[in-house]
Amino acid sequence: MTAPPPTVVVDRREQAEAELAREIAALVRDRGRLVLGVATGDTPSGLYRELARMRREEGLDFGRVVAFGLDEYLGLAPDHPASFARQLRENVFEPLGIPESSRHVPGDAEGGDEYERRIRDAGGIDLQILGIGRNGHVAFNEPPTPRESRTREVRLHAWTREDAVPAFGSLAAVPERAVTMGIATILDARRIRVLAFGRRKSAIVARSLAGAIGPDVPATFLRDHPDLRVWLDRDAALELEPARRAGRS
Ligand code: GLP
Q: Is this prediction's pTM over 0.85?
């Protein structure tokens, strides 16, 4: 059985955001050049605000950081308010000052192989920031997704489309297809850092971190990674200990 990954439970999400921001800042200061994998969604938003604060107030320089977006809806204009390209531009690329030539989003690439090639050419992802979807997806790797999956087009799960309604205004407006890095692409990153906050993530956090590893909960594959760290707030961690105990009995 795989050992449980290092999991940190914090009282307030800001503590997790500050800890991960400090780790990223230390890497940026030590190495200058860092290849970051960046997730969208609500989960990492406070982390990006903290990194932007470090840039403003502490002079942290992201000028040699290369960033790769995880996923994107298909069929949206890049400027569509709900597009991940726009979210990344507004919440990550601009506030951190990542140079234009170092910004990569999957919607811009000529297919999955080309995106994989760009990641390899950049030297691979040093640190991948991730959230978890309610159905156990990471990026848009919906259940079931095999461990060997690479960047490709996918069909979105009903829950994922429901969760996107606030961003699009109606279910009919939510795209049915997307492009996403695969599980194998994500597992190639040197460090994987996962955040999950709030009660609505508690069941899937428990399944992801304590359930059987396999394609039905794609996030479980992250536990195969040698340098994984997970931060949860108390609400997100609520069902984890009982699940771990049940797994042991
Ligand atoms: C979205 C994205 C994922 C994200 C996840 C959780 O659909 N494709 O990259 O991590 O679902 O989103 P949130 O952080 O808003 O809960």
A: yes
